């Protein structure tokens, strides 16, 4: 699931041409099989086809597996959201 960073009730600012991935979930019984990486690679490619300026993602601060995966995909952490989750982005 992803959206362009515009016109959503929770967005305090508009970021045209930037995309946001609010959550990525893989069922526990299918984790550690490479599905998350493949899903993210396909998702990033799909978003890149729309010529974005950046792709943002949010994840639980305690989820070190997600942090490691997103880092290897090029995401750079830049802060926390109001709920304390980590924000990261790829600038294109």
Structure description:
By secondary structure, this protein is α+β, with helices and mostly antiparallel strands. It has a single domain (3-91), classed as Gcn5-related N-acetyltransferase (GNAT) (Aminopeptidase), CATH 3.40.630. Helix content is 25%, strand content 29%. It has helices at 35-48, 64-72, and strands spanning 3-5, 15-21, 54-59, 76-80, 86-91. It has a five-stranded mixed beta sheet with strand order 1-2-3-5-4. Strand 2 (15-21), helix 1 and strand 3 (54-59) form a beta-alpha-beta unit. It starts with a strand and ends with a strand.
The CATH superfamily bears the name: Gcn5-related N-acetyltransferase (GNAT)
Helix fraction, binned, reads: 25-40%
The spatial strand order of the largest sheet comes to 1-2-3-5-4
CATH topology, what is it called? Aminopeptidase
Multimeric state of these chains? single chain
**Class by SSE composition:** alpha+beta
CATH architecture: 3-Layer(aba) Sandwich
The Rg value, from CA coordinates, equals 13 Å
Distance between the termini: 20 Å
Number of strands: 5
Q: Major sheet: size, sense and barrel closure?
A: 5 strands, mixed
